[in-house]
């Protein structure tokens, strides 16, 4: 083995060693930078809740975990628990945020009536549940399990004031408002895909195709046994969900304004 060859080998080893050392230094610097970013980044409650809503919208309730949230925000669990709380509290906060935005809805136009207010907020709930498929389940839980919480109280207060403005007698406010709220929540929930639904209906199925298939099935029923179903089969196939929803609100309002 010649001296020149030995010198070349030694030089290559030194270069490789230097490259490895530089690589480790770069990795260490990157790690320190990420840690510094985590320490320096002050996450607000609003940022955490907004990110939680994004996770819920993309994958439903199963997608929202504290671990997934910390990874998305590049933070530790301590920040999540300090600003919001555990997973259940995150779900409640996400629901309160979406519903709170809806309840702040104001109808367009300078001069509005109590009916306009009710229609605007009701359509806001309809659209919110269509946009956030996880919301229907959480909203139902809030109403039934947390009657003193901000969601339940906010919904009843928002609609109840307008029921009073319609001239419904004070003694009938609770019954009238409960009837209106139950219709609205029931109708909007019916048009939502519920998390954990095991009905076998593919949520990706085309609405028109689904209604056409149901209409055809109704038309195949014995007309002597189901004369009503035969009449409405075509109407059901062509109906518009939003218009039907508003028709229902109009019917409820007509009824409660006649309460004495």
From TrEMBL:
Instruction: Give the annotated DNA-binding region, as residue ranges.
Output: 65-84
**Which Gene3D superfamilies does the UniProt entry name for this protein?**
Homeodomain-like, Tetracycline Repressor, domain 2
Report the residue ranges that make up the HTH tetR-type domain in this protein.
Answer: 42-102
InterPro entries in the record, alphabetically? Answer: Homeodomain-like_sf (IPR009057), HTH-type_TetR-like_transc_reg (IPR050109), HTH_TetR (IPR001647), Repressor_TetR_C (IPR004111), Tet_transcr_reg_TetR-rel_C_sf (IPR036271)
Q: Which UniProt keywords apply?
A: DNA-binding, Transcription, Transcription regulation
Whether S-adenosyl-L-methionine counts among this entry's keywords is no
Report if keyword Transcription regulation is assigned: yes
Q: What is this protein called?
A: TetR/AcrR family transcriptional regulator
Kindly list the organism's lineage: Bacteria, Bacillati, Actinomycetota, Actinomycetes, Mycobacteriales
């Amino acid at each position: 083995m010649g001296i020149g060859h030995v010198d070349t080998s030694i030089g290559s080893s030194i270069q490789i060693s230097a490259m490895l050392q530089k690589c480790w230094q770069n990795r260490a610097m990157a790690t320190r930078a990420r840690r510094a970013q985590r320490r320096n980044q002050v996450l607000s409650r609003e940022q955490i809740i907004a990110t939680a809503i994004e996770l819920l919208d993309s994958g439903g309730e199963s997608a929202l975990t504290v671990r997934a949230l910390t990874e998305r925000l590049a933070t530790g669990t301590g920040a999540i628990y300090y600003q919001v709380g555990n997973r259940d509290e995150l779900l409640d906060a996400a629901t309160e945020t979406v519903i709170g935005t809806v309840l702040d809805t104001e109808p367009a136009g300078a001069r509005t009536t109590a009916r306009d207010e009710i229609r605007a907020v009701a359509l806001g709930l309809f659209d919110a549940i269509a946009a956030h498929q996880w919301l229907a389940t959480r909203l139902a839980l809030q109403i039934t399990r947390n009657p003193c919480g901000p969601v339940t109280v906010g919904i009843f207060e928002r609609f109840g004031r307008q029921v009073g403005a319609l001239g419904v007698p004070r003694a009938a406010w609770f019954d009238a408002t409960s009837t209106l709220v139950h219709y609205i929540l029931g109708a909007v929930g019916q048009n939502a895909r519920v998390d954990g639904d095991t009905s076998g209906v593919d949520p990706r199925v085309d609405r028109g195709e689904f209604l056409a298939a149901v209409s055809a099935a109704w038309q195949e029923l014995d007309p002597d046994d189901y004369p009503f179903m035969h009449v409405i089969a075509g109407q059901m196939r062509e109906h518009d969900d939003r218009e039907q929803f508003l028709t229902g609100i109009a019917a409820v309002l007509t009824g409660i304004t006649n309460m004495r």
